[in-house]
Amino acid sequence: MACGFRRSIACQLSRLLDLPPENLIKSISAVPISRKEEVADFQLSVDSLLGNNNDHSRPDIQVQATRLAEKLKCDTVVSEISTGQGTVNFKINRELLTKTVLQQVIKDGSKYGLNSELFSGLPQKKIVVEFSSPNVAKKFHVGHLRSTIIGNFIANLKEALGHQVTRINYLGDWGMQFGLLGTGFQLFGYEEKLQSNPLQHLFEVYVQVNKEAADNKNVAKSAHEFFQRLELGDMQALELWQKFRDLSVEEYVRIYKRLGVHFDEYSGESFYREKSQEVLKLLDSKGLLQKTIKGTAIVNLSGNGDPSSICTVMRSDGTSLYATRDLAAAIDRMDKYNFDTMIYVTDKGQKKHFQQVFQMLQIMGYDWAERCQHVPFGVVQGMKTRRGEVTFLEDVLNEIRSRMLQNMASIKTTKEVENPQETAERVGLAALIIQDFKGVLLSDYQFSWDRIFQSRGDTGVFLQYTHARLHSLEETFGCGYLNDFNTACLQEPQSVSILQHLLRFDEVLYRSSQDLQPRHIVSYLLTLSHLAGMAHKTLHIKDSPPEVAGARLHLFRAVRSVLANGMKLLGITPVCRM
Ligand code: ARG
Fold first, then answer.
1. Ligand 1, atom 10: nearest CA belongs to which residue?
2. SS (H, E, C) 77-128
3. Which of the residues are catalytic?
4. Pairwise CA distance, residues 94 & 22, whole Å
5. Is 210 in a helix, a strand, or coil?
6. φ, ψ for residue 170 (rounded to 5)?
């Protein structure tokens, strides 16, 4: 779409510059809307065209821009050519702009912006995204929550771009905690509680047995023995472990569903108990494994004994560690999926861990290690629920729902909604996601319930509110108008700004696809909503002549469609009423 215009500009340029249009398209960008009424629609950055950023001094660039602008001609698409700072600016024929944008939004539906030329020639890739990855029986903390929503966003975006995406939840389902649980369950466990509320009950047992083990050597010893039995493949012990795992996964699936998140695979560290022994052998055979005096085994990554570049891969009893299992998991996934890219989403505390894992894969001779990527994110401070610090995902969801229900009850304009619980949850989740996605993922931030639920500010509540309002506009005025509408009626500055903004959606998607940061989409959608709010005040539908009303309705429908598309990519389910 936007690219239709970009291509047309690129074609003219290509004749002048004797370069293929494909090379020019990415130097042409839609101009962000400004408060000033008249802005050009596209600009060509002369700097990026010349493919250099340093040795051309400013005045020279300006001369080039002017020269280029003089040689270019207006045509049926471009109605005005001018120059800006180091740019050549293009204004698109107003009627053509309106018609093309609106038609394209309707025609492409959920694919609007994704069919763009910016993505053409993009090879379809096999992408593994590993995210969420909580530890069974331990806390589901805010870091896991962030991983869940960020990973879901990345997977959504990649999928929307046509890649084949596999979503993996890599559970912490192995390790000493299961030794403790095995022992603890015999002491404090209840089968009934386990069945009805497994995550909560396992956590309780885990907390209790941990306390007990600290004071009572026998308990600690028995936990140790239980884990040994697991490691050795004792059937009875494994059966209990399997039950804990199965019941937990069942409940995870149910809770993730409330979040709108699903996984193709519930993998976990337990899968790699045996395979990590093979990894150890492989490391050894390649001469990379070094035994220490303590009996553990390490891989020295720098070769100079610098302690920060040493990775321990085996305990003194021969069992594997977190990193060893990650090596085994990566190798296994390569075998299974033959991925082009594998993305791990965790907090930044694990940065070094992944660096070491990727580096070890590399020196083991796996060239595909460079296809592995860690997407780190920062720490969220101060997220508390009524029950205190975040321990369960479900508590966060319940808190969001009840707080939002309260908010909705206090807002007089809230319409009667059919399912207030569900609506509150969707709006509340939007609030949470927008707050989280606003900034650079790597930054830490301070969490505040009050801030995220503000209906006016740049919040998810505001996005949902805008979506619901636009939806009710369509409901009120029906679609009768939509068949014949006159695009010439959409020439007010408010309409033009919206059209210009819609024109930019593909570029925003492109940016997010490049750096995997959702904030570009977030700020785009917030601007879109503000524009819609302003237009809603002035571009009345009621009492307007049919062709004007129809055109405006069409415009609002396009806004709602793009708003919904963007929200869904972020992992938000748009509501039609609130
Ligand atoms: N379960 C881990 C934790 O809670 C996160 C797993 C991250 N993924 C991985 N492949 N190591 O810290």
1. 326
2. CEEEEEEECCEEEEEECHHHHHHHHHHHHHHHHHHCCCCCHHHCCCCCCEEE
3. 138, 141, 144
4. 25
5. helix
6. -100, 90
Count of C-beta atoms within a 10 Å radius of residue 498: 26
* Residues 568 and 574 sit within 8 Å (Cβ to Cβ): yes
Please say if the pLDDT value at position 415 is more than 70: no
* Residue with CA nearest ligand 1 atom 5: 133
Q: Is the pLDDT of residue 222 over 80?
A: yes
- Please, which pLDDT band fits residue 319 given cuts at 50, 70 and 90? confident
Q: Are strands 42-45 and 384-385 parallel, antiparallel or unpaired?
A: unpaired
Q: How far is the CA of 251 from the centre of ligand 1 (A)?
A: 19
Of 382, 385, 536, 395, nearest to 469 by C-alpha is 536
Q: What is the mean pLDDT of residues 506-535?
A: 97
How far apart CA 375 and CA 147 sit, in angstroms, is 9
Query: Would you say 24 and 8 are in contact if contact means Cβ atoms under 8 Å apart?
Result: no
343, pLDDT greater than 90: yes
* Tokens representing residue 390 in the block: 């975040």
Per-residue exposure over 129-159, b if at least 16 CB sit within 10 Å of its own CB, e if not: bbbbbbbbbbbbbbbbbbbbbbbbbbbbbbe
pTM of the full structure: 0.95
> Is 140 touching ligand 1 by the criterion CB < 6 Å?
no
Span 246-267, pLDDT tens digits = 999 999 999 999 999 999 999 9
* C-beta of 347 in contact with ligand 1 (< 6 A): no
CB 150 within 8 A of CB 441: yes
**Surface-to-core class of residue 506, CB atoms within 10 Å of its CB (0-12 exposed, 13-18 middle, 19+ buried):** buried
Q: Does 175 contact ligand 1 (Cβ within 6 A)?
A: no
End-to-end CA distance of the chain: 32
Give CA–CA dist 42/507, Å, rounded.
12
Burial level of 106, CB count in 10 A (0-12/13-18/19+)? Answer: middle
Whether pLDDT at 208 is above 60: yes
For the segment 163-181, what is each residue's pLDDT rounded down to a tens digit? Answer: 999 999 999 999 889 999 9
Compute the distance from residue 15 Cα to the ligand 1 centre, in Å: 53
CA atoms of 342 and 331, how far apart (whole Å) = 11
| Per-residue pLDDT reduced to its tens digit, 34-45 | 765 567 999 999
For residue 304, count other CB atoms closer than 10 A to its CB.
Answer: 7
Ligand 1 mean position, distance from CA 513 (Å) = 24
- The stretches of 126-234 forming alpha helices (DSSP H) are 142-160, 176-188, 191-196, 198-215, 217-231
Position 484: which residue type?
A: D
Minimum-distance ligand 1 atom for the alpha carbon of 172 = 1
From the list 352, 351, 354, the residue with the least C-alpha distance to 441 is 351
DSSP characters over 215-257: H-HHHHHHHHHHHHHHHTT-HHHHHHHHHHHHHHHHHHHHHHH
Residue 326 Cβ inside 6 Å of ligand 1? The answer reads yes
